[in-house]
What does this fold into?
Amino acid sequence: MYAKFHSIGAFVPSKILSNEDLEKMVDTSDEWILKRTGIKERRIADDDEVTSDMATKASNIAIKRAGLNKEDIDLIVCATVTPDYFNMPSTACVVADKIGIKNVQAFDISAACSGFVYALSVAKAFIESGMKKHVLIIGAEKFSSIVDYTDRATCILFGDGAGAAVISATDNKDEAIIDVHASADGSYADFLVTPAPGSVHPVSQKVIDEGLNFVQMKGNETFKLAVKTLTKDVKDILAENNIESKDIPHFVPHQANYRIIKAVGDALKMTEEQVVVTVGKYGNTSAASIPMAINDIYESGRLKRGELMLLDTFGGGLTWASALLPFAGDSFKE
Ligand code: UT7
It folds into this structure.
């Protein structure tokens, strides 16, 4: 039994936070943000729009596009670092209820920006082992809920959104996911961290006073390690599977910073047409970044059945992951 990437869906909040808006909030400029990150604007969820709401909307689209009924889903894996609750119930359980699926295995995984590709590796393993047939994987973030909008080093980067995919069993090797790499190095844990709430810092006055509930990032160090690690990881996955970068029509990297995307794309000798770039309009949406980017090329008619995608991502943990797979769904026609 093989696993195939059966469908994609996404939800993007309507509210836009532009660089010009940020200029009024912190000491920054549109010019600095564009030059250093490639970001022009990002989407911010409404106060009453939580991670599971965005995840549910993306999931319903993905299930419909797979031509399935919600009852066909036998596992839900939600990747997020901005869950509805710290830490129960899982956002996957809330999403199952909001979609209206009873008696389904559902859990979250925490791998920051690498979460969606980690979830893909879990879905692939469950399906290849014969345990599940249709796995709903989600990357969803309300990152604005952990961003300090007085910290110019982080608040210019992140946005909200959700993406989802259905991974299904198939006996046709031609449409199967070819390979997924996923790895981590916890010795760099302090590069990207939300210190509280957790067992290290339970909620207290100190947490509030020191803003320990907000994301902290060693941006420059993370940047350099991201370029080095990602370049090696994508070169490895291509070599191990005897595929050349010129044969990949869609390179879908994590959308953290255009300069990282460009450096890795150049190292692979990818053309502009091959590299998918959405960071300018969505910013960094962490686990949602890759499925939102796949959905973008799908809905613009660029992604067709059978075409190869190369995914790569890097995030808090530190974690990183890459995947090589054909798109195995119907072409967009809505
Ligand atoms: O998704 C998970 C993985 N995350 C990433 O991969 C993020 C990786 N990091 C980055 O994208 C970049 O490091 C940043 C965009 C966060 C920062 O860019 P940088 O080129 O690494 O800048 P820097 O941190 O070295 O800062 C350069 C200067 C500093 O000023 P001085 O010390 O040179 O006077 C900063 O204070 O830029 C200043 N700066 C800003 N200036 C205007 C930092 N943030 C801002 C800002 N506006 N928003």
